[in-house]
Amino acid sequence: MATDRTRAAILNAAEQLYAERGFSEVTLRDIVAAAGVNLAAVNYHFGSKDELIAELFVTRSIATNRERLNELKAVEEAGGGRAPIEAVIRALVGPTLRGCLGPDRQRATAARFMIRASIEAVPPIRKIRNREISHLRRFAAAMQRSLPDVPEVDIYWGLHFALALAHQTIRDSERLTKLSNGLCDLDDVDGIIARVVTAASLALTTKRAGAAAAKAQRA
Amino acid sequence: MATDRTRAAILNAAEQLYAERGFSEVTLRDIVAAAGVNLAAVNYHFGSKDELIAELFVTRSIATNRERLNELKAVEEAGGGRAPIEAVIRALVGPTLRGCLGPDRQRATAARFMIRASIEAVPPIRKIRNREISHLRRFAAAMQRSLPDVPEVDIYWGLHFALALAHQTIRDSERLTKLSNGLCDLDDVDGIIARVVTAASLALTTKRAGAAAAKAQRA
DNA sequence: TTGCAATTCAAACAGTTGTATGAAACTATT
DNA sequence: AATAGTTTCATACAACTGTTTGAATTGCAA
Fold first, then answer.
1. Which nucleotides in chain D have some atom under 7 angstroms from a protein Cβ?
2. Per-residue pLDDT tens for A108-131?
3. CATH classification number, A62-218, choose in 3.30.70.2740, 1.10.579.10, 1.10.357.10, 3.90.550.10
4. How many Cβ atoms are within 10 Å of A175's Cβ, its own excluded?
5. Contact A163 B161 (CB under 8 A)
6. Chain centre distance of CA A113
7. A157–B213 CB contact, under 8 Å
């Protein structure tokens, strides 16, 4: 059907443009020009610009979450219901990092679109994003299973830190390259994932010493 | 002079609105309404909307950098030219974290404006932001002095991670609160700084073990 | 007070945005 | 081949954007 071709062309063009420039910098006319369709097509097929963004976000959100949960399930089953904390964190940050920094262009567009969505918080997305909380809770639970002795509050901080490292690395990769004069290799995806996972795990497992140091610092 | 009062009112209103809603969501009419001045005042006093943003950014950028460097200088002098890595990192992330999460409302506005600026990368700011690279290099150098045995590339990653943790904690504080059901106390600024500093320092000082683990993970 | 510059103001400008319309083109069933 | 339903298209629309204009007002020096 010609209908689906137009829809798909719009979705592709919109996702790519949004991923590249951000939501506020892309107009409907940019999208339809890139997609090679008529201006009215967006409203005809999606109702409005916001609904287009929402559909894009929901689709990608589901895909990312499934990818993460599959990886989590795999490592937990391999460990008899309890995976090493490094594996849990890798399941959390791996898909996004691989997506954004890896060689697969289509995957990169999708992943970068999600990064934009988490940054710009445009109205149509803000309403839906609460769903992600419950998704993250499943990872918090898995992390707690990995580290039964770590207090719950530290689990949340660890989860937050892991996402922070992954996220910001994608967003600021350009600055890191400049700052380090190219010393930090942003193409070594596995190396980056390893760095993020290690740093986040360390913050969690060295927590007792860390908490003590924290108290000392406060004094 | 009445002139300066109008200028100041515009700057205040603009900074606050930008900090709250982001650049793309605030119009000149919003700003002049909040400032209680005429629409044409912005163009009269600043030339254009972009120049207003640029002036705001430059002013705040200078203030933040000075605050950081003062703290760095203090701890390095106290240690005879070489400060503990925790102190260096605290000088880097402390001012912004204290500014954004602390009780001082005016400071919070300023700090949050800078966060927005680092996120949205609107054209007038993008041109100026390169200056920050050289500022960060001074911290990289200080960190290298603190940890002479750590390879340069790891220093950059550590610096990047420290900023990532601080930054994202400010940006995503709402989600962290929701996710943890309020367990993570975002009002405990010193505690948060301690967590960020500890996590970033750990990633740097445990690097040799970390690098080994990273290689193992890749296999 | 008078005169001049600086500042404020209401109004309008040109450009862009998302959306709506109605005619045209197409598709598929009869 | 004729018709009904779907999809495309050029075009127009109203709302909003940053900016400009020229007259009114203000503040201050002579």
1. 6-12, 16-22, 26-28
2. 999 999 999 988 878 888 878 878
3. 1.10.357.10
4. 18
5. no
6. 9
7. no
Q: What share of chain B is helix, strand, coil (3-state, %, to 5)?
A: 80, 0, 20
Q: Within 13 Å of residue B216, how many CA atoms lie on the same side as its CB? A: 10
Instruction: Give pLDDT tens digits for B46-97.
Output: 999 999 999 999 999 999 999 999 999 999 999 999 999 999 999 999 999 9
Q: Which of A25, A153, A218 is the closest to B183 by Cβ?
A: A153
- The CA–C1' separation of A106 and D8, in angstroms, is 28
Cα distance between residue A189 and residue A196, in whole Å? 11
- A213 close to B (CB below 8 A): yes
The CATH number of B61-213 is: 1.10.357.10
Superfamily of domain A1-47: Homeodomain-like (1.10.10.60)
Tell me what pLDDT residue B122 has. Answer: 84
What dihedral angle (degrees, nearest 10) is formed by the CA atoms of A115, A199, A150, A96?
20
Q: Domain residue spans in chain A?
A: 1-47, 62-218
